[in-house]
Structures are given as structure tokens and as C-alpha cells.
Design brief:
The protein is an alpha/beta fold. About 50% of the residues lie in helices and about 15% in strands. It contains six helices and five strands. Strands 3-4-5 form a three-stranded parallel beta sheet. Strands 1-2 form a two-stranded antiparallel sheet. Helix 1 (about 5-20) packs antiparallel against helix 3. The relative contact order is 0.18. This is Aldehyde dehydrogenase family protein.
Amino acid sequence: ALRTPRQRGTMLRALATLMREHTEELALLDAIDGGFPLPAMRDDVNWAAEVLELMADAAFDIGGRTIPLSANLHYTLQQPYGVVARIVPFNHPVLFAGSKIAAPLMAGNAVVLKAPDQTPLSAIRLAQLAREVLPEGLFGVVTGHGATAGA
């Protein structure tokens, strides 16, 4: 929340670029980890990057609105929640990881992502990549079975 929407959009676009640069690695992690077909996992990486880019573009339009009324001033104010949790299913892990973090990060929230216990590798690698472009503490991943990880 300390960054402007435009700054957050720039960071999301940088993360999308990193994902595209590491498409083969992320796709291979999901293919090995979950037994998914490699071509489908490449598509998943690109789709997740597209969602990040979509949210990056939306960040340039976020803001409050003034509502004209006759007697009083009325306005909306966009405020982040703070920390948002996201749970990723085992199927298409990199697609869901990338797409589930996009909107909360764009809105100024920190995100804790619960990686699937069966296929956690791509979510962990995504968090490592995110460290290159996101401020420290803005995005983290927890692993483990749902009951022990708090899901």
C-alpha cells in the first residue's frame, strides 16, 4: 500500500516478464511435479503472465471517484485489506498461483500463497522470481498439508 497504483502495475508487469523469461523452467517444474503435459504447462505460464499484465494495466486506472450530489460531497476511496491469503489447487499450479496473486498485489495488498501440497514447486519458484521485482515481504509462499498449513 506504500506504492502508488502505477508503481504496483509496473512491478506486476516486471513479474509477468520474469515469468515469460522462465517459461520453460516453470512449465517443467509443473510437468515433473504433477505429471502434466509440458506443452499445456507452457500455456499455463503464459496465461498466468497475461493475468498479471491485465492487472498491471488495471492498476493505471485504479482510484477513488467523486460522486456529484446536490447537497453533500460523496466519494469512494480504494484501500487495500492488508494481507490476503490465496490457496492454490494441485491442478495447473503455476497458472493459479500467478493469477491468484495478481489482483491482490495490484490493489496494494501483501499476499500469502498456500502452495498445493502435491505440486508446490512452481509456486515456490514463482516466489523466488518475485523477490527480484517485488518489495521484501509483499509475497510469500507456505507449503504443507492443508490442516498443518492452516488451510
